[in-house]
Amino acid sequence: MDLVIARPEGLYCPAGDFYIDPWRPVERSVITHAHGDHARIGNRHYLAAAPGEGILRARLGQDINLQTLPYGQPLTHNGVTLSFHPAGHVLGSAQVRLEYRGEVWVASGDYKIEPDGTCAPFEPVRCDTFITESTFGLPIYRWQPQAHVFAEINQWWQANAATDKTSVLFCYAFGKAQRILHGIDASLGPILVHGAVEPLNQVYRAGGIYLPPTIYAGEVQKSDPMMRKALVLAPPSAGGSTWMRRFGEYSDGFASGWMRLRGTRRRRGVDRGFVLSDHADWPGLLWAIEQTGAERVIVTHGSVGVLVRHLREQGLDAMSFSTEYGDDEEENAAVEPKSAEVLP
Amino acid sequence: MKAFADLYAELDATTSSNAKLVAMQHYFAEAAPEDAAWAVYFLSGGRPRQLVPVRILRELAVEISSLAPWLFEESYQAVDDLAETISLVLPEALHSSNDGLAVWIERKLLPLRGETPQVLAERLPALWSQLDRQSLMLCIKLITGSFRVGVSKLLVTRALAAMAGLDSKRVAQRLVGYTDLSNRPNACGYLKLIAAESADEHAQRGGQPYPFFLAHALSQPVEQFEALLGPASHWQVEWKWDGIRAQVVKRDGRLWIWSRGEELVTERFPELDSLVHCLPDGTVIDGEIVACKTGQPTTEDAFNPHSPAAPAVKPFALLQQRIGRKTLDKKILEEVPVVILAYDLLEWQGEDWRNQPQSERRTQLEHVVASGKNPVLLASPVLTGEDWFDLARQRQASRKLGVEGMMLKARDALYGVGRTKDMGVWWKWKVDPFSVDAVLIYAQRGHGRRASLYSDYTFAVWDGTPDASKRALVPFAKAYSGLTDEEMRQVDIIVRKTTVEKFGPVSSVTPSLVFELGFEGIALSRRHKSGIAVRFPRMLRWRQDKSVEEADNLGTLQDLLG
């Protein structure tokens, strides 16, 4: 019997009678991480990894019925033993390991291989069946080490500051922004953040993650000369909005895995594209799958067909689940960011 | 190579002309002359013929990347640019070659042309492994002749002029013909481009033409002309011919004909050879090569530039067929004979006349044409009207005469360089395009900025009227311009939702979208399923108010054929 199946409400574990990251309201939900396409409002019960509690409550409401487990600690429910293991994607992100009558399944949600210091690094978990994403499931997506990307951002920031230009870096407010804050050289100048970023910073700091001091951009006077030396982090949807008017002369950049392609870079219309993703690249996906030792792999979202076909050619039993993941702004370059995300 | 790749990345990343100008100036200031020579060549649109068949590039990329061929194809579909795809799937080079652009082009890339697949399979991977990702993409673009970056020739000219402290018109002059296939860029040639002005520069020109003066579009209603342009009498008005803009250069007993793309096309028009006998040395004429009706114009009247009858010209489509031919046989020369309609005199008796007023140049041009007495050299007639409204009335005959509208040239204007306005202005006052309402039936992902967006569309009209019992949509034109980015995004979403079938990058869709399509010309065609070929099709607007059933039919198009 399959431990996880796809239902109209979401991925479902029949033996345990609960859902993993359901997209419609259900009785019992297990949440891999707090991005909007995986954690939705309206479920009666939530179960998540402990480090994600702050973010989940901040996004879904302080009063949700949430139970948490530290990474690695098992919980048995209806005979299914469940545990969370770090997915390295964002703070609190987890792979869900399910064991039932000797069979092990892992639903990985979204994951990233390279450790970044803002969340527990990805840990491969041995299993029989591995459920994986495939956001960047094409061989053209291969990441540089992040130190290299941060050096590029530092250089860009420094060059702008030298000519009195504000550096506005667009990035997703949850996860990417904090990773950048953690990784860049904060001694280069003041760091300003958009109203969508700051509340998440506070959750990260409360979770013990070091982030350099940040200034809420809304509190800075337009005429303040400090702005000319500053790095500003803002969600992509702030670009082109009236919010941008406060910066006089500026250079803009965008940090995303999609920036790997010249076409998407140009379509964004920013001065610089920095290739930085919180998802696994192609070699990362293949490595992670191999590490699990799974003979069966189920692909949920992204370049599903490509990864399934490739894995089959490698002799694995691969198939896909049709899910509603991946419509988060982070994962879909073609879709314009939702304006709801910008409100400060 | 690395420096040029960095320049490419910088130019590619910005839409600001100023930033591009600065980037080019920096590059030219630093680059060795032999490298700069090639950079100028590529930036101003020069393209050597393809060096290696694309098929071989693909096969090698698949082999080196050890990807399954289908996986390479999927990647290519996502990127939509072969050079970029290859650069993304090959292993990243650890060390980057320090050799300059010239060494790469002359010693490494040009020698690849004509080599056997075996030799290419040996040499290309070795070359590729010396390049970082950015340089590798550029290298492949140079190999395939698909190098393009958003700078105009004018901008390159300005960058060189600013760096060398020269007048940009002088640099433009020296750059003419630089990208012609017969010219091989080298350090010496580059240094001449940026050398200080010399006294004998004018005398050493050989067959060099002048940079073409280009017109601006005039789209205001005629009611505003008086206010915008002053009285019609201040303007020299001519038909806007639909042919090939060309300069005829006669010097040192020889004749050269240059196209607007600054390509030497003398051999393409053997019937114009006879001009070598009837133009004195030191003459340069600007005009339009058009296909004329056989037997015409031979009357004396044709030599009278003030004759009201316009020379009878054939549609551009015919001329285009002739241009497309590799060899010109007797039949095509008989079927599509050409003449040149002269409209400007740029050099006379070895003197540069571009700083003479338009009216003076015109008077002298008429003398030159009249004394030449050659049936292939005619003056483009000057049109007269009482006022702008009178001219607007005359302009209505444009379609019938096979012209695109009128040209307005200030009588006191000098002959400028490129699309500038500082020396005087030429306006093109074109007639409205033909238009039909057509249905989008196929969509293809675009290139560059539009990669991964469905932005290139195939349009169809019905093969019968709405009352026909059974009718089908027949494709007749492809268009990819005219929509705003926002509209394109909306269309993209609808295409994705209504896709029926995919053939590689092309999706067929359930017909639901109607667009008003504009085009400049229409001709019968045996090559198109619809039997019709249109020129410069583009989207004028999205007819969200029209249903698919309300789109036009082939009959509408046939009526336009006249």
Structure in words:
With 344 residues, chain A is of the alpha/beta class. Chain A has two domains: 5-140 and 278-341, Ribonuclease Z/Hydroxyacylglutathione hydrolase-like (Metallo-beta-lactamase, Chain A); 146-274, Metallo-hydrolase/oxidoreductase (Rossmann fold, 3-Layer(aba) Sandwich), CATH 3.40.50.10710. Helix content of chain A is 20%, strand content 25%. Chain A has seven helices and 19 strands. Chain A has helices at residues 53-60, 146-162, 176-183, 198-206, 262-268, 282-292, 304-313, and strands at residues 5-7, 10-13, 18-20, 28-31, 45-49, 66-69, 75-77, 80-86, 94-100, 103-107, 129-134, 166-170, 191-193, 215-216, 231-234, 250-255, 272-274, 296-302, 317-320. In chain A, the strands form three sheets. Chain A has a seven-stranded mixed beta sheet, covered by helices on one side. By secondary structure, chain B is of the alpha+beta class. Among the domains of chain B are: 216-430, 2-Layer Sandwich (D-amino Acid Aminotransferase, Chain A, domain 1), CATH 3.30.470.30; 434-561, Nucleic acid-binding proteins (OB fold (Dihydrolipoamide Acetyltransferase, E2P), Beta Barrel), CATH 2.40.50. Chain B has 21 helices and 20 strands. In chain B, strands 12, 13, 14, 15, 16, 17 and 20 form a seven-stranded antiparallel beta sheet that branches. In chain B, strands 3, 4, 5, 6, 7 and 8 form a six-stranded mixed beta sheet that branches. Chain B has a five-stranded mixed beta sheet with strand order 1-11-10-2-9, with no helix packed on it. In chain B, helix 3 (33-43) crosses helix 7. The longest helix of chain B is centred in the middle third of the chain and has 15 residues, at 358-372. Chain B is globular, with a radius of gyration of 26 Å.
